[in-house]
Design brief:
Layout: H1 10-31, H2 43-50, H3 60-73, H4 79-95, H5 99-106, H6 112-125, H7 134-142, H8 146-164
Length: 165
């Protein structure tokens, strides 16, 4: 005699367990990336950067930049289109030395490579300006590419040493 009770649950359960195991393994393996040693930012430069407060509401110029960022990020458009608009705002802010607005706009760019390019551009804009060099720390911290961050941090350390002299 064949017992037909509860025979339909084993196969789907095993299938789900297999899918969960494969998904967990892929997430685990994707999270393992070859580590790149990142040079540290000089402590005194980092301390100076920590004193900076980004408050776009504090000044009329800041409110204008906030409005531009809000307009660039709103609406029903693709991420590519929003990234294009946000990059235009960030590049314009860098050009006008509104680094607080440039940081705020750049963090809203979805594409990691394009965001890294803007942060790197910002760091180059302040490279020779000792007063604004702490903004490059924000750029460094925003980079996703560890090799680029290492290069930038080494350059920051050299430039900061020149600024202290």
């Amino acid at each position: 005699m064949i017992d037909n009770r509860a025979t339909g649950w084993k196969v789907p359960l095993l299938f789900c367990a297999g899918i969960i195991a494969v998904s967990a393994l892929s997430v685990f393996l994707r999270g393992i990336k070859p580590g790149v040693e990142v040079a540290p930012v000089p402590d005194d430069l980092l301390a100076k950067a920590r004193t900076i407060v980004i408050d776009l509401e504090a000044t009329p110029q800041g409110r204008m930049w906030k409005e531009r960022i809000y307009r660039a990020s709103g609406g029903f458009s693709s991420r590519q289109s929003k990234d294009d608009s946000m990059i235009q705002v960030a590049e314009s802010a860098i050009e006008f030395k509104a680094f607080d607005a440039a940081c705020a706009a750049t963090t809203l760019v979805y594409d990691n490579q394009r965001r890294d390019a803007i942060f790197f551009k910002m760091s180059q804009a302040v490279h020779d300006d000792c007063e604004n060099l702490p903004w490059a720390v924000f750029a460094s911290k925003g980079l996703e590419d560890n090799a680029l961050r290492d290069t930038l941090n080494k350059d920051l350390a050299q430039q900061w040493d020149k600024c202290k002299k």
